[in-house]
Specification:
With 674 residues, the protein is of the alpha/beta class. Helix content is 60%, strand content 14%. It is built from 29 helices and 14 strands. Strands 1, 2, 3, 4, 5, 6, 7 and 8 form an 8-stranded mixed sheet that branches. Strands 9, 10, 11, 12, 13 and 14 form a 6-stranded mixed sheet that branches. It is globular. The N and C termini lie far apart (85 Å).
Length: 674
């Protein structure tokens, strides 16, 4: 092994715009384009004295003796690709982004590490499609005449200090085509976070990605891998000085064979913790390897063994060791929370973990029923287990058993308050807030969100605080207090920005509030921002959901053609992830448009389709709601027999759900059917 050497260098990162979608559409053709891409880039890199450090999928990481040579190579590459794309047709064209920076690196075994490597990777990530982005430091060291427009002060993902970034043009002619306002508008479209000079961010932050644990046991032990990962990430999010990617981001790299250094660049973190799990009947072992991506050095290699009900204790121990290595001091309140003893039966805890996993992930139609069974078993074994009651309550809620759900959540609250279980209380307050919001008891919902925020005064958790505030905004919006709702939405957004998290959910909530205010122009703008943010994070499900909500707004505006247009887009995107619940919601939305347009046959077909999807997921509440809509359509078609038959089916199913709102809707229909 070679000795690590620290030195200064000019850094280059590139990647192909939309590569993942190109691969999904036509893998063999895209791989042919990738070969051509590599030939073009490597030729210009070598010609300008650069060295390719490595290929990372469609990305190239290279270094140059000087920033001038890096810039010359980048300009030559973009010129050649621009010329090439004038010759070829759409499917044979491709564009790349390039990021340039200059700084310190650690050279170890032919690979480069360091904060500046990470920074250059993030700069490339925000380059406008087909262009070059360059850091202020690198630009100031460029010699000669270059044409640039300033991005402004940009908050890059997981980079604590905002950076001054510029767009570097290939020549004067290209520069003169764009005004500075055009550049800013393109950045907004790409969901790039430009911050004001007065916005301050904590620079003393450590970043670490906890990778999805490798399952060294049986496939059915997958629930424990996910549960332990969720526990560690949830605990880490309580520490203000440590940033970690969300579990949804990490899950993208499950079973990924890329080296940790490459994953770290994609996630924008300075440290990687690799985990492996061996799970047995009543015990488990966690192995962790923590590596610095700034130096390439191994920081910690350790194993922990315990019973399933030791999960929290081991997560706390792992994080405490990590905090010591990062020289991050944990508050006394947080240490007390981590040191707390939980006397929960081991078998009950294992069943709880497995049941919650099935409910949270909900991959198959029967998952909710299996979850319900496992959680009921957990409670039967240990009837003072608040988290199990809460999880069962939320599962019953998804199944449409609202009365049982409310009772279970209230029992969970009583148990957690009696035992002063603060960790459980934070989750239960949020669950109750969400439950009562869905039941349209908005004032009660707000009270529970407020209780959660008060608890966070003792155990600060910025992400949880943002969630509580965001959810409160939704409740105030439903109460018609839209100005107050917007104020809470912007407060939550400020925290999301501080944490460097996606603003998609925040934009969507603000859009919904403007929709309620009938300020449709603002609503459309924020929905578009939400969609851009979700696309940037490859969150196809949420893109689709935003389009479905947008269609509802167009219905309110009487613009039914636009409503159908966005639903058609939703159908195409939904094909990427094959989700029964989303497919059902899309069909139900089509039905609304058709009904308003008095296309009752089309509405009937869409509703029958939606019901089938909801039944496949055992979402009885949605099944009943959609059946009620279908009864109304049958009445419009004067098909009384079908209306009566559907009414009888709906009445039986609604008795199991016991939702006053749905029962009231059914009662109103009864007279029309008779």
């Amino acid at each position: 092994m070679q000795k690590s050497v620290k030195r200064k260098t000019a850094l280059f990162f590139s990647d192909i715009v939309g590569y993942s979608k190109m691969i999904a559409r036509n893998e063999s053709h895209t791989l042919d384009l990738l070969k051509e891409h590599d030939i073009i880039l490597e030729k210009e890199i070598n010609k300008n004295k650069g060295t390719v450090i490595k290929h990372i999928g469609d990305s190239i990481f290279a270094e140059f003796p000087s920033i001038n040579e890096a810039a010359e190579a980048s300009v030559s590459i973009q010129k050649e690709l621009a010329h090439r794309n004038t010759i070829y047709r759409g499917k044979d064209q491709f564009k790349i982004r390039i990021g340039l920076h200059q700084g310190d690196v650690v050279d170890k075994d032919g690979d480069l590490f360091g904060n500046d490597v990470n920074l250059c990777s993030r700069i490339e990530n925000i380059a406008i499609n087909g262009s070059i982005a360059i850091s202020d430091i690198a630009l100031n060291n460029l010699e000669g005449n270059w044409f640039t427009h300033k991005y402004g002060r940009v908050k890059l993902k997981n980079i604590p200090t905002p950076q001054e970034i510029h767009r570097l043009y290939i020549d004067k002619k290209e520069f003169q085509k764009h005004r500075h306002e055009d550049v800013i508008n393109q950045l907004i479209d790409l969901n790039i976070n430009i911050v004001g000079a007065d916005e301050q961010f904590d620079e003393d932050i450590q970043t670490v990605a906890i990778m999805y644990p490798q399952n060294l046991g049986n496939p059915e032990d997958e629930f424990f891998c996910y549960s332990f990962l969720e526990q560690v990430i949830t605990d880490l999010q309580k520490i203000d000085k440590i940033r970690t990617p969300s579990i949804s981001e990490i899950s993208r790299y499950k079973n990924n064979n890329q080296p940790p250094s490459e994953i770290a660049l994609k996630l924008g973190v300075s440290n990687i913790a690799q985990l492996s799990v061996i799970n047995t009947e009543d015990k488990f072992q966690i192995n962790m390897l923590l590596t610095s991506m700034d130096s390439g050095e191994e920081l910690l290699s350790k194993s922990w063994t315990g019973l399933h009900n030791d999960q929290r204790k081991i997560s706390a121990s792992l994080i405490s060791r990590m905090a010591d290595i990062f020289k991050v001091k944990l508050s006394e309140d947080l240490r007390r929370l981590f040191d707390r003893e939980y006397n929960i039966d081991n078998t009950a805890y294992k069943k709880y973990l497995e049941g919650k996993f099935l409910s949270d992930r909900m991959t198959y139609g029967q998952d909710l029923n299996k979850s319900e069974n496992l959680l009921e078993q957990a409670i039967k074994i240990d009837n003072e287990f608040p988290e199990a009651y809460a999880a069962l309550g939320m599962t019953k809620n998804l199944l449409g058993n609202y009365e049982d759900a409310e009772g279970l959540l209230e029992t969970a609250l009583d148990l957690a308050e009696d035992s002063e279980n603060e960790s459980a209380l934070m989750v239960i307050y949020n669950n109750l807030g969400i439950y009562y919001k869905e039941r349209q008891k908005y004032k009660k919902s707000i009270r529970y969100f407020e209780k959660g925020i008060k608890l966070l005064r003792i155990y600060p958790d910025n992400l949880m605080e943002a969630k509580f505030i965001h959810n409160m905004a939704g409740s105030y919006g439903r109460l018609g207090e839209n100005d107050r709702a917007l104020d809470f939405s912007y407060k939550a957004q400020k925290i999301y920005k501080k944490l460097g998290l996606s603003l998609g959910n925040s934009y969507a909530e603000i859009a919904a509030r403007y929709k309620d205010l009938k300020n449709y122009d603002e609503s459309i703008e924020y929905f578009n921002r939400a969609i851009r943010a979700f696309k940037a994070e490859d969150m196809s499900f949420k893109v689709t959901m935003s389009l479905v909500i947008q269609s509802d707004m167009y219905n309110n505006m009487g613009e039914f053609d636009k409503s159908i247009e966005v639903l058609d887009k939703a159908v195409i995107i939904a094909e990427d992830f094959q989700d029964e619940l989303m497919d059902g919601r899309i069909m139900a939305s089509y039905a609304i448009v058709y009904q308003v347009q008095e296309k009752y046959e089309e509405s009937k077909k869409a509703l029958l389709n939606a019901i089938e999807h909801f039944q496949n997921m055992n979402r009885n509440n949605l099944v009943v709601k959609t059946m009620i809509d279908l009864i109304q359509v049958y009445l419009k078609l004067s098909d009384i027999d079908s209306a009566k038959s559907m009414y009888d089916r709906c009445k039986k199913l609604s008795a199991r759900i016991n939702d006053p709102m749905l029962l009231s809707s059914l009662d109103k229909l009864e007279e029309n059917i008779k």
